[in-house]
From TrEMBL:
Family: Belongs to the major facilitator superfamily.
Name assigned to this protein: Lysosomal dipeptide transporter MFSD1
Keywords annotated in UniProt: Lysosome, Membrane, Transmembrane, Transmembrane helix, Transport
Any single Pfam family the record assigns to this protein: MFS_1
InterPro entries found in the cross-reference section: MFS (IPR011701), MFS_dom (IPR020846), MFS_trans_sf (IPR036259), MFSD1 (IPR052187)
Lineage of the organism: Bacteria, Bacillati, Actinomycetota, Actinomycetes, Mycobacteriales
Its membrane topology: Multi-pass membrane protein
Region of interest (Disordered), ranges: 1-22
Species per Swiss-Prot/TrEMBL record: Nocardia jiangsuensis
Residue stretches making up the Major facilitator superfamily (MFS) profile domain: 1-391
UniProt entry tagged with the keyword Hydrolase: no
Membrane spanning stretches: 31-55, 62-80, 86-109, 121-143, 149-171, 232-257, 269-287, 293-314, 335-355, 367-385
Subunit: Homodimer. Interacts with lysosomal protein GLMP (via lumenal domain); the interaction starts while both proteins are still in the endoplasmic reticulum and is required for stabilization of MFSD1 in lysosomes but has no direct effect on its targeting to lysosomes or transporter activity.
Length: 407
């Protein structure tokens, strides 16, 4: 018994030592932290096209159930493991499940609602998703304090299994009596054909130009920026984050209503959103010191509108893609705001700049924010080009569409 106790003690001490060493190994430098953020976004972004291809073949019901199962498995792995590689694998499973679920839910909307209502319903669906994240965070944050992280993650895994069962029982890919979608062509041909349509590229660059700013703000530690660089109290910074969520929820229906009413003017709304984004991100760093609270509030509100604004990219994909390849088109569009051309490139660049400029200071952040401008230039230029190409193609196909003036 004494020898067995000694072996158990050595094994437990070794496990505790490995966990402590793993915790000590966690990097604290901005450049390395941004690298972990990049890895997290790569998992989600990298699954978009594979998820879209699967969605076109098996339908939303199977994909949503699979996504719930993957997320439940990832949460369960996080609950039961003490090893860092397995914890990373758990986060990868959660990211894969998220990618499966997101585009699959939006694939259901045009199947169940008339075309004139789809933009608004899509915006409301996105709003409900954001609201669900906020509401679910409250009990999840309370459980670890009361029962520990293992219980919290096991509870999340249990909820995931329950949602998978409910999705399997309740979700249908299309209303009863709907004609089945024709089989999809080979994978390589479909990706090439979907990307070749200028409407898909218009959605891609729409999503890129409107989404990357708010995503970068969130991933690059918005609280340290507001507290360290702008000198706000943590409580005030927390209020601004709440304002960000409320602004996104409030602005959500507006792009949907305008997009449904003026389908050939969506690109103008996109350019207005990007222009407002450029204006506030130019005004705040241009000041010699920390910005006043009203300007920071305006900044948070304006960039938060980019979240609902990015949904216009999915409207482009729906409008210009046949139903058999709509999942692939949505996957391509969704990459626009997360691919290395946008969020990943900006996050990594900002992390390197912050590292060499001395950390989360005002001057360092002001210099790092200049990484936004190349993405804005590319996005605006390509939106202007692809919208003309899209309308020209529609006109060639016999549709009566307004052609924008050449600039």
């Amino acid at each position: 018994m004494g020898a067995r106790s000694a072996r158990c003690a050595r094994r437990n001490s070794g496990r505790a030592g490995s966990v402590k060493s793993a915790r000590r190994a966690l990097p604290r430098r901005p450049a390395v932290l941004s690298g972990f953020v990049v890895l997290q976004v790569i998992v989600y972004a990298g699954m978009q096209i594979p998820a879209g291809l699967l969605l076109d073949r098996v339908g939303s019901r199977v994909m949503i159930v699979a996504g719930a199962v993957l997320m439940a498995a990832g949460q369960g792995l996080l609950a039961l493991t003490e090893l860092l590689p397995l914890a990373v694998a758990g986060r990868v499973l959660v990211g894969m499940g998220d990618a499966f679920t997101f585009i699959s839910v939006f694939r259901l909307v045009p199947r169940w609602f008339p075309a004139r209502r789809v933009p608004l319903i899509s915006q409301l669906t996105g709003m409900l998703g954001q609201l669900g994240q906020v509401l679910s965070a409250i009990p999840f944050l309370a459980v670890p304090n009361a029962a520990g992280w293992t219980t919290a993650y096991l509870s999340a895994a249990t909820v995931g299994v329950l949602l998978a069962v409910l999705a399997l029982a309740a979700i249908r890919d299309a209303p009863p009596g709907t004609t089945p979608v024709a089989a999809t062509p080979p994978r390589r041909t479909r990706i090439r054909e979907v990307w070749a349509h200028p409407g898909t590229r218009l959605g891609f660059f729409t999503h890129m130009g409107t989404r990357f700013s708010i995503t970068t703000f969130a991933l690059m530690r918005d609280v340290p920026y507001l507290v360290t660089a702008q000198g706000l109290a943590r409580a005030t910074a927390g209020v601004l984050l709440t304002v960000s969520v409320l602004a996104a929820l409030t602005a959500g229906p507006i792009p949907g209503v305008l997009g449904a009413r003026y389908p050939f003017r969506r690109s103008r709304l996109v350019l207005v959103i990007i222009g407002a984004d450029i204006t506030v991100w130019t005004a705040v760093p241009a000041l010699p010191g920390p910005a006043p609270l009203w300007l920071l509030t305006l900044l948070v509100v304006v960039i938060s509108v980019g979240g609902p604004g990015s949904m216009i990219g999915f409207d482009h994909a729906r409008m210009f893609s046949p139903d058999r390849s709509l999942g692939t088109a949505r996957g391509i569009v969704n990459i626009g705001g997360f691919l290395f051309l946008a969020t990943l490139l900006v996050v990594e660049t900002m992390g390197i700049v912050l590292q060499h400029a001395g950390g989360y200071g005002f001057d360092a952040f002001r210099l790092a924010r200049t990484a936004h401008y190349p993405i804005w230039i590319v996005a605006v230029t390509r939106v202007l080009i692809t919208r003309r190409e899209t309308r020209s193609r529609m006109a060639a196909e016999g549709m009566d569409v307004p052609l924008p003036r050449r600039r």
